[in-house]
Amino acid sequence: MSLHHDFRENGYKNEWLWKKKLFRELDLYVFLQCAFTTIDFTLSIEVLNAKKNVVKLKKTLLRTYPDEICYDKDFRHILIKENQIIITDFLDYPFLSINIT
């Protein structure tokens, strides 16, 4: 019952950190965050420097109808190739990509 109470107290919004990854060679820390409301499901990215004091990128990557289970297999790993952050699906095929610069 407290889970429902917490969900209601937070404005019917559930947020969680899905994945974080440090790329030392590029001085980047990548965070992928999920948010689930009664209206939508969003996947957001935040890229910081390795010390986590400079935001280099902050953006919503995916916004869909509210079904967090449906998109569970759509994102698995975070890769960086040729100035692009690539999020792969459960078969390691590119699902989303975004330019770093």
How do the strands and helices of this protein lay out in sequence?
Blueprint: H1 2-9, E1 13-23, E2 28-37, E3 41-49, E4 55-64, E5 77-81, E6 84-88, E7 94-99
Structure, described:
- By secondary structure, the chain is mainly β.
- The chain is 8% helix and 55% strand.
- The protein contains one helix and seven strands.
- The chain has a four-stranded antiparallel beta sheet, with no helix packed on it. Strands 5-6-7 form a three-stranded antiparallel beta sheet, with no helix packed on it.
- β6 (84-88) and β7 form a beta hairpin.
- It is globular.
Name a few traits of the molecule.
7 strands; single chain; 3-stranded antiparallel beta sheet; 1 helix; mainly beta; 101 residues; 4-stranded antiparallel beta sheet
| Helical content band | under 10%
Gyration radius (Cα, Å) is 15 Å
**Number of alpha- plus pi-helical segments:** 1
Termini gap? 45 Å
The helix/strand series, from N terminus to C terminus, equals: HEEEEEEE
Shape: globular
For the biggest β-sheet, the strand order reads: 1-2-3-4
Structural class estimated from helices and strands: mainly beta
Main sheet summary? 4 strands, antiparallel
User: What is the beta-strand fraction?
Assistant: over 45%
Number of distinct beta strands: 7
Average pLDDT taken over every residue: 87
Question: Which residue ranges are poorly predicted, with pLDDT under 50 across at least 5 consecutive positions?
Answer: none
